[in-house]
Amino acid sequence: MTPFTVSAHPEDQNLPSWAKPVAAWPVVSASVKQSIQNILAEQTIKKTMESLKADEDLTLKQNIALSEIPAPPFNEQKKAQAFKELMITAGITDAYIDQEGNAIGIRKGSGNGPLIVLDAHLDTVFPLETDLKVVQKNGKYYGPGLTDDTRGLAVLLSWIRALNANNIKTVGDLMFVGSVGEEGNGDLRGVRALLKENKNVDAFIGLEPIPLGAVVSLNTGSVRYEVSFSAPGGHSYGAFGLVPSAIHAMGRAISNIAKLQVPSVPRTTFNVGIVKGGTSVNTISPDATMEIDMRSDGTKELQDLEQKVLDIIGKAVDEENKSIGQNLAVGKNSVTVNLKKIGQRPGGMTPNNSPLIQAALESLRAMGQKELVIVGSSTNAGIPISLGIPTVILPPGGVFEGFHSLQEGMDPTDGYKGSQIGLLTVLSVAGVQGVSQPLINKK
């Protein structure tokens, strides 16, 4: 991948440290500008935007209620059911849960327009036993999973209510999705299954807790491994120096992985996130396991990092065996290693001249907001982008902090502004009957 181009306002102090620009803002075509102007000129659309503002208290209430339902990957069923029922209450009476566990509701258009997926993920990074109770402090709300990505789910519900309350009829069909498996080892299973089942999707718009004014058009590629070390084990005193340790081999690997130097552009990262093993303090460990996550905005850079990590693991096993005089290839007392790939997320980017990216930018400007930066991130977007589907990730509104921590928090002040900009983007690409044609073509 070529070096990234600086975007319009990379110096903005509201940007988090990870928000490195990946593209310049596009030139918005006259047709995109005219479409959005036509939409905003309609009185019913103006009322719809006001509805989003008036709905913010209910949006926040549902945001909190949904976030207090445990939903780690592969355990999203209760939250999916709750989201489905809320979609029905909001006006999509035939909402359902698919075989993979995604909660889906379709709001039909005229019948001859594109199919637009509107997605927020149900799962969070927190184990089932985590205390998810939301607390309020100094105008902010704190709770694990409150923002990532439950805020997005709540905004999808607000969009449904606003569209129905104002009888907005789109040209394209809108598929509202609460997806499973975005976090951790879920490996994007929800969206993978969704797009395998629905091959006629024409555009994909996701909501994630990013700053207002930021747009995600690039998906960060990632690869994850579970690395299992095995050894014969033995007494920590009696077998000392006679048998290798699975934990020591893993420790050697982690130490050398931590010393790796990776590019800052394209942004490339690694993390050993889980380690476990051993049987007792006085037993030379017969087993040890670690899980490692590697990511990059560059395909070659990710491949290079993966190979370096695998080489380090092999050398660590060799070194541990040699420390007791064993040969890696032979000997019943050797440490061995098993590599299991537990996740691989495709990278890629929606072209900057896509009408979808232009619509997101023009919607920002039309609603009086400042564009900040086009960034890359690792989200559900990787699957549709890899399939050639125009894709963008937008902010749901609000100011967020503490992602993936027990201190995850949100200031909801003026959060409706993100909701308004997002829905305007949706209406422009889907088209509004009698007002504007879709900016995205039906397949």
Describe what you observe in this structure.
The protein has 443 residues and is of the alpha+beta class. The chain has two domains: 21-220 and 347-430, Aminopeptidase (3-Layer(aba) Sandwich); 221-345, Alpha-Beta Plaits, CATH 3.30.70. It is elongated and about 85 Å long. It has a six-stranded mixed sheet, with helices on one face. It contains eleven helices and 20 strands.
What distinguishing features does this structure have?
six-stranded mixed sheet; 2 domains; disordered N terminus; 11 helices; alpha+beta; 23% strand; Aminopeptidase; four-stranded mixed sheet; 443 residues; 33% helix; Alpha-Beta Plaits
Compact summary:
This protein is 33% helix and 23% strand. The chain is of the alpha+beta class.
